[in-house]
Amino acid sequence: MGVSVVLALGGIGIASFFFLKRREAADAMAQRFSGLHRLLVGKYFVDELYNAVVVQPIKNISTVFLWRGVDAGVIDGAVNGTGAVVRGTGSALRRLQTGSVRVYAASLFLGVVLVLGYYLSR
Question: Quick one: 18 exposed, middle or buried, by C-beta within 10 A (0-12, 13-18, 19+)?
Fold first, then answer.
């Protein structure tokens, strides 16, 4: 634990020397070790690697397959297809509703005769 505290205090001391007292020394070190400086400023480029390996493939799969394929194709197709079936059925059944009670009674009578005829013929 003591070694960790000494190393931490040493790091704080070096940082305060370079960035508070002698800023030009920090700039000189950055130029001298430009590759290491670029690597450290880029945070080891972990974010760029993660973006290229994980984020972009998931984004592309989600956009092409899930959004356009499943959502727009399957789900929207099912909803729109259901609406079209209901609209078509309603258009066909609307023609059967005339508002005449005699036609309704005749239809009921015909249905009863057909059902009784079916059961009596078996």
Answer: middle
58, pLDDT greater than 90:
yes
In angstroms, the CA 86 to CA 102 distance is: 27
For the entire predicted model, the pTM comes to 0.53
Q: To which residue do tokens 């059961």 refer?
A: 119
Residue 83 has φ and ψ, to the nearest 5°, of: -60, -40
pLDDT per residue as tens digits for the range 91-116: 988 888 888 899 899 999 999 999 99
How far is residue 67 from each of residues 24, 30, 55, 80, 81, measured CA to CA in Å? 53, 46, 16, 16, 18
Residue type, 54: V
Helix and strand totals (H; E) in the chain? 7, 0
